[in-house]
Design a protein that fits this description.
Elements: E1 4-8, H1 13-25, E2 29-33, H2 41-51, H3 64-68, H4 78-87, E3 96-99, E4 102-105
Parallel strand pairs: 1-2
Antiparallel strand pairs: 1-3, 3-4
Amino acid sequence: MPKITIYQKPTCSTCREAIKLLNASGQDYTAVNYYERPFTKVQLKGLLKKAGLNARDILRTKDEIYKALGLAGKHLAEEELLNLMIKHPDLIQRPIVEKGEKVMLARPADTIKRLL
C-alpha cells in the first residue's frame, strides 16, 4: 500500500483537520511542512499533473500576498504562476495530499477520505 504524504502548513486549520483524519484512519503518513522544506518547481509540477490540476487551481486568491502582488488583474502563464508559488508559498492552497499516483487538494479536509 502506498504511503501517504501530506504537504501542509501546521498553523492552517484545514491542514490540522486533515492530520486528525489521517491519525484517526491509522494509516502511516508523512507530514511535510512546505515552508520548512519548500517545493521545487519540478516537484510542484509533478503533484499538479498527478492531481489533474494547474497552478491557477491551487492559487490562494484570498491571501495578502496575492493582493500585494496584484495578481487579480494579471493573466500569468502557468510557468510564471509556478515561479511565484515557489517564491511565495502562501500562494499555494493546502493541504496537498499524495498517495502513490493519486494527488488531491484536500479542501475541505474531509475530502482526504477518498484516499484512505
